[in-house]
Amino acid sequence: MLCALVMFLGLIIAPTSAYPTGKVVEVTEVDFDAQVAKGPTLVDVYADWCGHCRQLAPVWEELAKELEGEVYVVKVNGPKCRSLQQRLHVKAYPSILYLRDGEMRSYDAAQRTVQALAAFARKGWRRTKPVPFYMAPNNWYGRSVGWVYKIPAIAREAHGNLRKAGWGDVSIIFATLAVPVAAGMFAIFVADVWVVRTTRAQGAAARRRDDARRLLREQQEALERMNRVHAD
């Protein structure tokens, strides 16, 4: 039922267009995994009130142009995306992370120029040790954990989209509850059909076995009678 609810909420969220190259892409909990799956991604986790983050902002825009066609340049508003910030294990702003091939690396150098960051995104990341497997958000384990974090964000965005479409709170609650109920009823129907068919098939097989045994027994009895007649 939980999976059905997530699927329903995902369907009513407005689809996003393809991210343009050469531009910074801002992501949230909802579309982070889809973005990272596209290829090598450099992430800036920032806060609006952070002075260092404001200084990095124009550099980040230039970096996106520099890495056009090579690396996706992404930013995440940490205070607004708390669950995603937790997945990325961010403790300070700004935090610069490089995600590629199921691994995550942190950029800890003091230089935050376009040249230094571009060098790190292109080849420098190879000299940096990745975080432990269980901390990376872009491998199978991290994506699985991400679904737990993603559900509240999907629900919030779906609720906002439905409100914009003119739905009332009562209608939204009814629709949200109707999906798992309908999914549960469908699952019960499928299980019932499967059980009935299985039971019928087993019954037919048992009857065929009984008929075969009865026929064999009748043949044996007939053969025994013939043997007795010949013996007499």
UniProtKB/TrEMBL annotation:
Domain Thioredoxin: from-to ranges: 7-126
UniProt keyword terms in alphabetical order: Disulfide bond, Electron transport, Endoplasmic reticulum, Membrane, Phosphoprotein, Redox-active center, Signal, Transmembrane, Transmembrane helix, Transport
PROSITE patterns: THIOREDOXIN_1, THIOREDOXIN_2
Location in the cell: Endoplasmic reticulum membrane
One term of GO molecular function: disulfide oxidoreductase activity
Main location: endoplasmic reticulum
InterPro entries, alphabetized: Thioredoxin-like_sf, Thioredoxin_CS, Thioredoxin_domain, TMX_domain-containing
GO CC annotation terms, alphabetical: endoplasmic reticulum membrane
Residues of the signal peptide: 1-18
Segments passing through the bilayer: 172-195
Membrane protein topology class: Single-pass type I membrane protein
Name of the protein this chain belongs to: Thioredoxin domain-containing protein
Species this chain originates from: Micromonas commoda (strain RCC299 / NOUM17 / CCMP2709) (Picoplanktonic green alga)
Biological classification of the source: Eukaryota, Viridiplantae, Chlorophyta, Mamiellophyceae, Mamiellales
